[in-house]
Amino acid sequence: LVFFCSSAYVPKTAAGHCKWAEVLKDLEQIKTSKDIDVSLYTANTDEDKECQEPVMRCFFLETEVILQECLIKNCSKTQDVFNIWKNGNASLENNKLNSTTSAKCKECEEYEEKNFTEFIQSFVKVIQKECK
30 Cβ partners below 8 Å, 6+ apart? Predict the structure, then answer.
């Protein structure tokens, strides 16, 4: 168990696989969706490194809002949105054991609300930064 917990923070493996790769793929699928029209709290892409986990949590929390919207409107991309939410929460759960959040990190609701397109662009940037 100790090895598993400590391995959660090891950078990419030799194979170069990022744990967010699946999420990134699904974000690419939904970013052009015309039937998703919501305003979402959008975390800054330039937050301190120590705030990365709360930033990721915020994006996945807001993905749940998109999912609810898609279920109501029967969006064409509902499955992709569900996959993002499911894969993201699974990865975040694995990190929870070691997580400590700095007091200076913002709560999700403290970020500016942005439209779906801007939200997705920021989400992709944050994940790409995580995968470097």
Answer: 36, 66, 77, 80, 81, 84, 120
Q: Which letter, b or e, does each residue of 96-114 get, where b requires 16 or more Cβ atoms within 10 Å of its Cβ?
A: eeeeeeeeebeebeebeeb
pTM across the whole model: 0.80
pLDDT tens digits along 10-69: 333 333 467 888 899 999 999 988 889 899 999 998 888 889 889 999 999 999 999 999
